[in-house]
Write a structure and sequence with these properties.
Layout: E1 10-13, H1 21-35, E2 43-48, H2 54-66, E3 71-77, H3 80-89, E4 94-98, E5 107-114, H4 122-134, E6 150-152, H5 156-167, H6 188-198
Parallel strand pairs: 2-3, 2-4, 3-6
Antiparallel strand pairs: 1-5, 4-5
Helix pairs in contact: 1-2, 1-4, 3-5
Length: 205
């Protein structure tokens, strides 16, 4: 039986199996198929960290999801909790993070969320693997007007900063080594300092 998912989504060296564009398109197709509903337009949020390979995987994932008739909302670089929040905030049906967290720069990964911003249940991950392994997903081919669209959400970072500000304790210190912030490969280069400045605090490393 094909096993793509580990303890925290799908991970590996980018552009090698299973993190190739070909396999990621299939992942997107199978994932979108789980959330399709007759007569209803569904949407999935996609966010990422700042690894170079994120562009390649984001494009492949978007192609797979839209090919199944599900819309994609692209939010760009954000911390993983931010993407979970945006998924709920935009009332999307599901969300995806393209990131390998603290793994080496050469790696990348894909983590799926349900609409409530929580990790996808193991049972649904198993369904995705089965659809890809058996080739069942290859038989599902929406046509013409049934194809999904992709939209760029430009204010996602601002939404998350405002949300985080309401949760941040008054008088707290912003810092690169504090427990409040982690993401060595990614988006905090923009969101962390910007958050601190918007709160009238100084960013330090």
């Amino acid at each position: 039986m094909l096993q793509l998912f580990g303890t925290d989504g799908v991970r590996g060296i980018a552009n090698e199996e299973p993190m190739t564009p070909e396999t990621v398109v299939k992942l997107g197709r199978a994932f979108a198929h789980l959330f399709k509903s007759p007569g209803a337009r569904r949407s999935v949020v996609i966010g990422k960290d700042t690894r170079l390979t994120g562009y390649m995987l984001e494009t492949a994932l978007t192609a797979g999801i839209t090919s199944m008739g599900v819309d994609v909302l692209l939010v760009g670089p954000l911390p993983t909790p931010g993407i979970a929040f945006i998924t709920r905030s935009l009332r999307a049906d599901a969300g995806v993070v393209i990131s390998a967290s603290h793994n080496p720069f050469e790696d990348n990964g894909i983590k799926f969320f349900s609409g409530d911003g929580m990790k996808l249940p193991d049972a649904l991950e198993a369904q995705i693997e089965e659809m890809i392994a058996t080739g069942a997903i290859d038989q599902v081919r929406p046509r013409a007007r049934e194809i999904g669209k992709a939209f760029r959400i430009n204010d996602a970072g601002g939404r998350y900063i405002e949300f985080a500000r309401t949760r941040f304790r008054s008088g707290s210190r912003c810092g690169g080594c504090g427990s409040s912030w982690t993401a060595p490969m990614g988006p905090p280069t923009g969101s962390r300092p910007r958050s601190c400045r918007s709160w009238g605090r100084r960013w330090w490393r």
